[in-house]
Write a structure and sequence with these properties.
CATH class of the largest domain: Alpha Beta
CATH superfamily of the largest domain: Toll/interleukin-1 receptor homology (TIR) domain
Structural class: alpha/beta
Largest sheet: 5 strands, mixed
Order of helices and strands: EEHEEEEEEEEHEHEHEHEHH
Number of strands: 14
CATH topology of the largest domain: Rossmann fold
Strand content: 25-35%
Strand order of the largest sheet: 1-9-8-3-4
Number of helices: 7
Distance between the termini: 58 Å
């Protein structure tokens, strides 16, 4: 079973949700005789059920001389009952069976998909795309916000002047569904305590209160991770980091790289409506550009 892997996802009441069961069924006749089906609380999903439907067919794709089978499950509108339901995927072939499930928890109107904290520093000789400031303020939002429709609170960008730092940090972390910590070396002394406090609050919630999930991005190579506080080293050891590897050869495909796929996998699931809004805004932007270009040419 590739997915689901006994996981929990968040969703709002009334929102649409699409899930995919993906499993390696083998090759040859083993794959041909394989079966894949969704169930709810270990009960078959009625074919005439309107609100919840599984895909009519099982899609297949080749992967390293084997066959990966996929089947979707669509919920047109989340209701309270779904939060008490276990959505299970069962896979069978002549060699055995596999199983995975998804549980849905309510999403309580948090303002941000992720709170981003990073060591703000200036490093002489550093490449622009390896600089923590540039990555946090430009690279990250250009992909997560502009391409995929996530809403980020980025310290150093979204803070309002005159607000008490402690109150702002705590309130905005509480209003975020993820905490993204960008790990880089040699923070400025003036900012070290400030960023350290942000990380302390976020890690306290992740370790003790279990209110927020942490995404660790390792921006640079080196042994600097050993110099972080014990709480961060514990998270690194337990969950690992996502290593930033900029693709200098193809900027056009950078948003589809393995790095961004890993980040999006750990980010909250986006609803279909929000992704459509991003797509429509991009189309509108391109059309406006063409209209302006046409005026200039005339």
């Amino acid at each position: 079973m590739i997915s689901p892997t006994n996981e929990t996802i968040e969703a709002r009441l009334g929102s649409e949700l699409n899930m995919t069961c993906e499993v390696l069924l083998g090759s040859g006749e083993v794959a041909e005789f394989g079966k894949l089906a969704w169930k709810m609380n270990n009960t078959d999903i009625p074919e005439d059920m309107f609100r919840i439907k599984q895909g009519n067919k099982i899609d297949k794709k080749e992967a390293k001389h084997a066959v990966v089978s996929l089947r979707t499950l669509s919920i047109s509108s989340i209701i309270e009952e779904d939060f008490q339901t276990t959505f299970e995927c069962f896979a069978y072939n002549p060699r055995g069976k596999s199983y995975g499930f998804i549980k849905i928890t309510p999403q309580y109107g948090k303002m941000f998909d992720a709170y981003v904290t990073y060591p703000r520093y200036v490093k002489e000789g550093a490449l622009d795309n390896c600089n923590a400031n540039h990555f946090a303020l430009h690279t990250l939002p250009q992909t997560l916000e502009e391409k995929y429709g996530y809403k980020l609170f980025i310290s150093g960008r979204d803070d309002l002047p005159g607000q008490a730092e402690v109150e702002v940090i705590e309130a905005n972390i509480r209003n975020s569904r993820r905490l993204i910590i960008i790990l880089a070396q040699k923070p400025l002394t003036s900012d070290q305590a400030y960023c350290g406090f942000e990380q302390q609050i976020g890690l306290y919630k992740a370790l003790i209160q279990n209110e927020i999930k942490v995404i660790l991005i390792e921006l640079e190579k080196g042994d600097y991770l050993n110099h972080f506080p014990e709480s961060i080293r514990h998270i690194i050891q337990r969950y690992g980091t996502i290593k930033w590897k900029p693709d200098r050869r193809s900027k056009l495909n950078s948003s589809y790289s393995r790095f961004w796929k890993q980040v999006r996998y750990k980010m909250p699931l986006k609803s279909k409506s929000s992704m459509s809004a991003v797509y429509n805004s991009q189309i509108k932007f391109k059309l406006n550009d063409r209209q302006l270009l046409g005026k200039e040419q005339t």
